[in-house]
Amino acid sequence: MENRQNKLIGIDVGGTFIKFALMDTEGAIEKDWMIPTDIAEKGKHIPKDICTSIRASVDQNELAELLGIGIGVPGPISPDGNTVVRAVNLDWEQVPLKEIIEAELAIGVRLLNDANAAALGEMWKGAAQGKADLLFVTLGTGVGGGIVLKGEVLNGCHSAGGEIGHIPVRSEENRLCGCGGRNCLETFASANGLVMSMREKLKKAGEPWHEMTSKDVFEAVAKNDPYAQAVLEDFMDILGQALAGIMNTIDVEEVIIGGGLSEAGDALLDPLKEKMDAYVFPQIRNHFSVKKALLGNKAGIYGAAYAYLTSHNNTYAGTVK
């Protein structure tokens, strides 16, 4: 009898919206949709909302064809893959999301961190297609990351693999990070960190400060503003050193940059590659590429579905294209 289970649902749980997509095992999306994230009462309604939305958006025939569901969440997953250990944006602690969804829908579920999901998505259908070893970096309000080696996410023994935003930076400043640490990479190399550096630069120079965004900083650089140029130089040096250190450790062939700052395009990617080349081990230099992510807010959906696909049935592992 022919196996009709050839559909997947990828889900990306964010602090504002939960994004869904129904796709086939080749990654062709048949329908996608989103719902608001209800974080009231410590996010206890989110699992039920996910199940209700799937039932409302996917008909019975499509449900019968479902191979499984992949879910990316903004936090670490327990080593056994069953529990969301912590998700600050959702106010979650130790939520057995896999068990809840499987019990409600009677369909297999794979959980993974959202940055790891995005890394897999870019490998499967994005900027790193055809590659199996990559470093994925998101530069937004914070700095996130995912490491993929031989086609599999490096999760780590404590579900903290790829937390590159919390690499310590040596600095005379004392910037408090959301994790509770001081001078983590994301306090300098994120959009927020860039703006904070610009404010500090102007303050030390006795220049007036006007509210600005990271985009404003890049625009000031393009206009040859000396303060913005100095700030961006420091930003690139800090980020370049950190990413070069990772490259010297894992030696992958692709670095994919996503997040809001990636919209700066070559104004970000070119100087970052130069800095990384200055710091990486000579054997690696000129043998890796730095590219902008292609999938935007769909990366996590693709990656979550792919994670289920490859963990459930290895015969599908060859569908990377």
From TrEMBL:
Gene3D superfamilies: 3.30.420.40. InterPro entries: ATPase_NBD, ROK, ROK_cs. PANTHER family: BIFUNCTIONAL UDP-N-ACETYLGLUCOSAMINE 2-EPIMERASE_N-ACETYLMANNOSAMINE KINASE (PTHR18964:SF149), ROK (REPRESSOR, ORF, KINASE) FAMILY (PTHR18964). Belongs to the ROK (NagC/XylR) family. This is ROK family protein. It comes from Candidatus Enterococcus murrayae.
